[in-house]
Structures are given as C-alpha cells and as structure tokens.
Amino acid sequence: MKTLLLTVLATLIPMALSAQPLNPPATPARPVVDTVHGMKLTDPYRWLEDNKTDEVVKWTRAQHDTALAWLDKNSPPVPGLKEELTRYTDRTITSPPSFYKGREFFTRKVKGEAQAKLYTRLDGKEVLLFDPVKLDPTGKSSLSGNSYSRDASIISVGVQVAGDELPTQYLIDSKTGAQLYAPLVQVQGVSWTADNKIVYIEQRTQEQITKQLPLFWQRLKLGESVKDAPVVHKWADAKNWGSVADFEYSPYTVYDLGEGWQQNTISIARTGSKDTPRVIFAEKGARATITMIGDTIYARTTAKSPNGRLLKASVAKPEFKDWIEIVPEEKGVVLESFVVTKKNIIVLEKRELLKRARVLDLNGKFVRDLPAPEFGSIAGMSYDRDSNTLYASLSTFIAPFKLYKLDADKLEWQFLYQDESVLETKDIETKQVYVTSRDGTKVPMFVSYKKGTKLDGNNPAMIYGYGGFNVGIKVSYLGAFATLVNRGVVVAQPGLRGGDEYGESWHEGGMRGNKQNVFDDFYASAEWLIKEGYTTSKRLVAFGGSNGGLLVGAAATQRPDLFNGIVCSVPLLDMVRYHKFRIARYWIPEYGDPDKAEDFAWLLRYSPYRNVRSGLNMPTMLVIAGENDTRVDPLHAKKFVALAQANPGQINPVMLKMDYDSGHGTGKSTAQQVEDRETWLRFILAMTR
Q1: Distance between CA atoms of 150 and 36, rounded to whole angstroms?
Q2: Among the four residues 62, 228, 542, 655, which has the most C-beta atoms within 10 Å?
Q3: Annotated catalytic residue: which of 305, 507, 664, 669?
C-alpha cells in the first residue's frame, strides 16, 4: 500500500505544480537610479532593504504565508519523511569530547530536548555544567562554542539567541557549573592567558555590524569592566579579521591579522613584555599558520606553494626569509594541517579529496605513514600535549564520524565514540567522478545513489554546490540527504573551483574575477548527470546556501534550462551592493569591491538580482532567508523575489520563505530543524517527480 501511495504521489505532483499559480501579494516598484562608475543602474525595490519598517515587515509576512500555502498544495507531506527526519534530528547526540588538562568535556543533546547542554566527567560520572534552555525556555538559545582556562578550572560558554551569532559568554566553574563572573555580553572571541583570570576578548555588537565598524581585541581582567579593558590588537577596515593568543608551550604571544581567506600577517612578541610585536610573515597573496614550542616556530604556508608546505624557524631568526623548509610542496597533494607532538610532526594531507596522515620527525624527515584504522577519510586531528594523546575523527558517506585516540608515541588506534546512526544507508553507494568544465578543467564530483539505480536518464536528482571561501567537498556523512537517496533521488556534490579541493590555486580559480568558473563548473556537472543517464533537466533540482545561494541564483538567471527547481538559501544576490550591509565587508577579498570599477564590472555581469530580465523564466524557486542573519542580510532574498515576481516573462513560481527565529542557519531548536528540513526536502521531492 505504501509503495502504491508513493507511486500515486509521484504521478500527481507534476500536474499540481503546473496547475497551481503562486498569487503573491502585490509589490510596488519605487525605482532608485544610481550612477555607478559612469553607468546608470535602476533598483526598483530598494525600499525592501529596510527590514524594520512596518511596510516591509507586512510585505515579508505576506510573502512567507503565500509561500507556505503554495508549498502545502504543491509539495504535500511525503509518507514517512517527517518521522524519519524526527528520528534523525531528535536523537541523543553527543559531541566528540574535548580532553584538556586531564579533564573531559562534551556537549549532548538528549532525545526530546530542544538544545545541546555542556557536560564534564568527574570520577567517572557525568556532570551537567550548563543548560541553555534554563536561560531561555523557548529553546531558541543555543551553545556557540567554549574556551577553557589554562588550568581548566574555568570555562567560557558562548550562548546565542535565535541564531543571531552575537553570543554572550558565561564564565563558569568547570566542576560545578556555578557562574563565577558577570556575563560578557556580545563577545564572540575569548582567548585565555597563562593567568587564569586574564583573557583576550573580541566584542561583536549589533552596532558594529550595522555600522560596519572594524572589530578589535582587548585584554580583560575578569571582574573588571570591558569598556576599560585596553585594546591590544586592532585593524583599520571591517573587511579584516584578527586574533591574539598566548602560546601555551612557548613564552610568546601571536597576533594574526587577515584579509579574506587568502592572506594574513603574523606578528609575535614575548608574552607580558611591552615590546612592539615583530612581523614574521606578511607575504602578499599567501597565508600561514604557526605554532610554537619553546623557541621553535613550526609553520604551514601557501607562500610560493599553493598546495602548502611545512617550514621551521627559531625566534633568533623568526622572519619568513629565514624559515627553513622541512616538508616541500608536493604536486597533487594538499598539506592541510599539522600537529607537533613531543617526538613527531603528524601532517594531514589530501590526495584526490581523501585525507591521510603521515608521521615525520621534528625536522620533517619521513618516519612512516599512519593509515586509517578502517575505510574512510581522516577528517581532523588534535593533540593534547599534557597527556601526549592524539584524537582523530574518521568520516564516511554512510555513517556519522568515528572518534579515535592514539598514544602519540605508539600511534595505535583506539576507538572512542561514534554518534548514533538512525538513517538507513546500507543500500546507498557513492562514487567519485570527474567532469570537464567549459575551459577544459577537470572537476571532481561525488555522486550518491541507491543500489540498482538504472541509468535510463529519468531518475530524480539534486545537485548541491558551494564553490567559494576555500571551502570544498569532502568525504562526510550524507545526513538528511540520505532521506533523498533512499527515495530514489540521485545526490551530486561537485567540487567547484573556489573551494579547497586542490589547494590555493583551485580557490583562486573561483574567486574575484574568476567567479564565472564556479558557475561553469556547476553547469558542466549538471550536464554530465544528464549526459550519463542519471537524470533529465525536468527532474533535476539545484540546492545551495549562502555563497551556494549566490551560485544557484546565478544558475537561475544564466542556465534556467538545466533545472526544474532551485532551493536558494540565505543567499547573496545583489552583488553591486552586497558590501554595504552587516558583516559583508569580510567578503570583499573573495568577491571584489564594487566601489572599484574593475571589480564592479565582473560583479555586475553575474549578479543575479541585476540579471533578471524581460523574457527570462527561471525554474520554480524556493528562496529562504533568516530574519536574524548577521552574515547575509535578508534584503537579498526579498529584492530578488520581488523582481522575479514582477518580471513579465516569469511563469514559474518564485517564493520567499522566512526563518523568523533563525540567522544564517546555526542554533536552531530540534523542532525548527525538523520543520526546516522537511520543507526543503518536500520541495525537492516534488520538483524531481
């Protein structure tokens, strides 16, 4: 009976989609004409940028309600889907434990609870330290990171409200959970000094976001006023970022100042001195990450090595020109990270998207490979120097990651923990393929499908993409996507340029003036799926969020023929004005500066909002925005939807769904996660049938 019902639904849904108009509320056009670099640009929906006016609030709610009504009619409930998502989302989930100074800390969300809580283990017993639901019984406040004092006696616990990413830090006793000091309001960064009562803090206030003011770090003695704390690290522009930290095993403080995800400047000074920090790395277009043990500096850098290499230096000669290469760059291998143990250096390398570890001596000489204990990719590695213990996570497509520990001398794997798996994955296969993009570049792609899938060109399919900020695809658990695969949907994840799949050159190939490469890689991947018989454009949905929302927004305007539906979540869409709102100046090094004529030209060419044109009929689109999003202003989604709906050529529905108690996607309660996932999964299933 269940199979019959699914068959009936699959037959009926396309008819419903073609028969049901959206009927959105009327949106008045109030054109504003700007002259930018000698070009006149008309913006008919500039008034929607003001999210707080009564008119915009009412318009937004009307659009949201209209979208929900359409979705209820055209993407009806799928038998078993909500129950499956509830099992997956509302299960007991324990985070990988943090081990520090002989202590164990972890978070756990128990089945039936809205948010995760912070725990420790004392004398073999679990002790609850912090419960955000006690602060906010609505379940809309969530943990947003912890930091531990040097003796592990105090924990700074970050809490955000409704995903606003403006955390308050609660300073608590690490054994009892008792609050020790007044909370630090709107502080996003806490770095502890050797003195357990002094911290470096980075405030992030609503005013700083609204006015796009640069952030800075202060040195605060706990119990004293933040406003009186001296500034110890600052920068001139809100597009920059920085950090300051005392090394735990070296008498030095490191000051990091970055511009985008490609370039940074590193300075050091003896901890506690009044010396001006000495610049040791400032290579144009390159990044470095350092750690210090005693007077020795270990560094991973992309300078003259886009795939990364490992170098070593002494505080006697700390500048980059004196750094000594101990692990050279290797073609086809990305040196992702490293840890320095008492006897060895463990490097994590990526070869064709699969991560493996190698063991070197402290001078970089190869000792041996460190094979994974079973099939999978080593997702990450950390080291507790006090216990001389390594912790490593192992990822696959079909199960949550596994956590292992290794004695840093013996390097023998010992299984510690794996999260509960409630989704059926035994019939899911994933393979890696390569797609030829428009300019001849080979693009990797993971394709997941149900065993026995016939390549008859008629399977439902979804393609998910991001392509930016040095963030790439990796071997990782399919999670909620598994619910699609189990229902016959092919799920494709291409490794687009702009990511980190093949080092910094791959990232650079998809940023700034090269951004069109990202879109072309995406289209080539979709065309490959069609050509190879996985699907057809009439049953293919594109899905992307944030920078991926920009990607699928561009796809909607450039290649509407390739897709039947698009999920465009928390997107950037008006690229000639993106830099004027919230924290978007951070994105200038990645996308370019619209205030510069050259950058403006390439941004205008692909900006989705500026390329909605007469005669264009984009695929049916579900555009999702977060009301409390501090990263990407919801104005992008609002303006784009209004313009699309007003376009005479637009036949397919383009609708706006607001997440009213959410930001850029973090901090959602269990109930919110279930509701949101069901909404876009139902839409995808409807648009692929």
Answers
A1: 52
A2: 542
A3: 664
**CATH of residue 185:** 2.130.10.120
Q: How far is residue 117 from each of residues 98, 173, 400, 470, measured CA to CA in Å?
A: 14, 15, 20, 31
Residue 439 is a catalytic residue: no
**Can you read off the two tokens belonging to residue 663?**
């930001």
- Cα atoms in the 13 Å half-sphere on the side-chain side of 318: 22
Q: What angle do CA 272, 276, 277 make, to 5 degrees?
A: 80
Q: What angle do CA 616, 462, 569 make, to 5 degrees?
A: 65
Q: Which of 220, 235, 250 is the last residue of a domain?
A: 235
Please identify which of the residues 546, 607, 662, 669 carries the catalytic annotation: 546
Both tokens of 332, joined, read 């086809």
End residue of a domain, out of 202, 235, 268:
235
Helical H segments across 320-449, by residue range:
none
Q: Does residue 546 have an active-site annotation?
A: yes
- Return the CATH number at 466: 3.40.50.1820
Q: Tell me what the pLDDT averaged over the chain comes to.
A: 95
Q: How far apart are CA 590 and CA 319, in angstroms?
A: 27
Contact by Cβ (8 Å): 449, 383 = no
24 band by pLDDT with thresholds 50, 70 and 90: very high
**Cβ-proximal residues to 583 (8 Å cutoff; 6+ apart), any chain:** 209, 212, 238, 630, 631
Q: CA nearest 289: which of 316, 273, 308, 276?
A: 308
pLDDT at 16: 35
Would strands 620-626 and 654-659 be described as parallel, antiparallel, or unpaired? Answer: parallel
Q: How far apart are CA 148 and CA 155, in angstroms?
A: 5
Beta-carbon contacts of residue 307 (< 8 Å; ≥ 6 apart): 329, 330, 331, 332, 333, 334, 335, 502, 503, 504, 505
Within 8 A by CB and 6+ apart from 387, the residues are 99, 102
Active-site annotation holder among 43, 164, 574, 629 = 629
Q: Is the same domain home to 483 and 614?
A: no
The sheet carrying 168-173 orders its strands as 141-148, 154-161, 168-173
Does residue 166 surpass a pLDDT of 80? yes
State the residue range of the domain holding 17: 1-76+543-666
Q: What is the pLDDT of residues 463-480, one digit of tens each?
A: 999 999 999 999 999 999
- β pairing state of 344-351 and 296-301: unpaired
Is 37 among the residues known to form the active site? no
3 state DSSP class of 606: helix
Same domain, 517 and 459: yes
User: Same structural domain for residues 52 and 12?
Assistant: yes
- Centre a 10 Å sphere on the Cβ of residue 380 and count the other Cβ atoms it contains: 16
pLDDT at 99: 86
